[in-house]
Structures are given as C-alpha cells and as structure tokens.
Amino acid sequence: MLAYRTIALTLALLCSATAASAAPRTSLEPRAAHEHAPATPQRIVTLAPSTAENLFAIGAGDRVVGVGDFTTYPPEAAKLPKVGGLRDPDLEAIIALRPDLVIIRGKSEQVERLCRTSGIAVVEDKTDSFDSIFETVHELGDLVGEPDKATELIADMRGRLASIRSAADGQPRPRMLFTLRSPDRLANITTVADGSYLAKVIELAGGQNVFGELDVAYPQVALEEIIARRPDVVIEAFPGLDLDAATRRRLLDQWRAAGFKQLADEGRIHFLADDYVLIPSPRVVLLAENLHNIFSGGSGTSGH
Asked: Which end of the chain is more exposed for a tag (fewer CB within 10 A), N or C?
C-alpha cells in the first residue's frame, strides 16, 4: 500500500538522519571529495522532499532539475524528472540531468560514489530536529545565493509558530499518542519521543506526548503499553492514504476492538493524510496549526 510505503521510507530517513546526528556538524555538510558546492549552482538534484520544498520556498526552484520519487510539493516540483529515493537512487537518471550539485538526506554511498567519480558536488542535508529545519533553510539560502529570501521565510515561519504556541499556552494539554503504522492492522506501531522534531511540534501545538520521555526518537511500542498510558487523544499519520468514510470506519474499528471504544466514539482518534505530515519543511507550520486545532477540540484538516 502506497501510504504504508511512504511512512516506512520517511521513517527510515528520519531515523537515519537522527542517528547520524550524534556527531556535531552543520545541517548541510559537504561530502565525498568536494569541499564546496558551486558558487551559484544552476542544476540541482535533490532526493528528499523536504529539500525540494525548501529550495522552491526560497526562490531557487527554477534551478532544481530532478527530485526524489516521493516529492509531491510544490506542484512544480512534483512535475520534475524523478531520480529514485535514498535507498534506491536512479543513478542513470541523475547523470542524465547533468547536475552541478546533488543534495541528499541521510547517507547514500551509491550517490556519493557517483558524484565523486563524476565530479559533481554533493552535500548532505542533516535536518533531523525542529531547530535544524530553520538551520537548513538558512544554509540552503547561502548555498544557492538566496540568503535574504531564506531569512524572510524563517521569520515568517517563526512568527506563525510563535502565534500557535501563544494560543496553546494556558490551555489544558491533552495526553496524546502520535502513531505511524500500516493502516492494515493495529500492530507494529511506531510513535515519537523527545528526540524527534515531531515531538517538538506536538509540544508547541499544546499536546502532552504520553511517550515523550523515551530515549529513542521513533520507538516501536506495544498495544499493551498504549493501553497502560491511557491517552486522551490519538493522532495517526497516514500520508497519502485516501481517507474515505469506509477507511475511517475500518481504522476506528481497529481501535474499538483494541479497547479504545470511548475514544473512537467520542471523536478523539484523528487521522492525518496530508503529504506534509512527516516532512520537516516549511509546511511544519501547517502541521502545528492542524495539531493545535485538534488539541483545542477541533477535528483537524484531515478529519477524524
């Protein structure tokens, strides 16, 4: 199922970036034999959806010539040639696009080797935390010669997020669970803890994460553990899933069968299918707005 594949690949990327962040370094790091990217890169290939979104948001979209398979936003980026993903890059497609810069997230020995042998600059986008989202926008602005637009974007994001935080302050904080799983069955449930950027967004939007104290950013948790923590609200991320009425009923019935009938019947289990839910990009503001609406008693933009 496409939604589950998207979740699995995005989660793998988030986990690899988080693990790699143990060593201190900047968000955008030169890799392989290339110490610097071109002074003004004109043909950029990026494998991560978040990087493509950032580049378009700071006015460098006209220089992006290829994107990863899961890039869906903005629409102009979605129409560009696809070059595979971090785990299955299409090396021939990358070479055919004649890039002078390739940007990756996580480690890809295949892409790094290709760039090294072909004389293409390659940098690694190290976005792995809430704060590094802003650092990456700033560094991308410097990298592509759009520092002023990057500064404007960061200011706009911080201002909107500050408004959400202000609205959440003083309100009751519901005990909530955020899940990533296959929609096929209520099993193999991954959640988020304080090491993840998603946990920071939850806190900012006014939620109290029932698994926030765990020392793994994206831990797997058993259903028994969820029952013991007694969340007031459950939010499930299914980016790309068609949340029609039948699908919502099926997902809610899974929770009812697991002992969460009251939450399901009272509309306290929510499903988010927006494509940005797991992407650490400028649209993190939309996720924060959506979560705050849910925590304040609304339904969120994807329904419940």
From this structure: N
